[in-house]
Input
Amino acid sequence: MYLIRWYGPFYSRQELEDWEREQESLFYLYLFQGKRKNKKTYNYYCGMTYDRSNCVSCVYNRMKDSNHHIHVFEQERKESLLIWVGTIANNVHPTRKDISICENMITSEIAQIELDESKIVNETNKLPPTRNVYLINEWYNRNQIKYRPQSIDFIPNIVPDVITYDAESKNLYRAKKLVFISKMIS
Output
């Protein structure tokens, strides 16, 4: 089971870097959306970073790679770019495999369930995991206050709050939004 806390949106890599440098948490996952030149709809990308050279917070470093997809969005329509970064909150030291499974689940969900596959920029990691996985997504703004944007095509409204995968049946399940039922009384 993985609990991912997502923070954002950030409107540029510099804005993300400034914020990420101030955080104690390590951020291994990121999502971004942007509109391509002459397009009206968003394209989406989910990525991961792991074990970057002596970097306490690593996503902004990964996005500096010269061949990273984010550069295309910055060059074509920078004003439409929205970035989210995620930390695996219930695992202080996730392995590369843990991070990859989380990326895989989100990419599989976006590509196979939510959107037209042509809107997903990822070239790899669209196949489902090989074991049962339970993933919970929580969304926060940069001030660490729970956040849910109004726009239906923003990432927190695209990626479900809960995604589960049953490896035996190869079924993907989701709960789009968790709904408040009642307060527990002790």
About this structure: The mean pLDDT is 80. Strands lie at 2-10, 29-35, 42-48, 82-88, 133-140, 162-166, 171-175. The chain has one domain: 2-175.
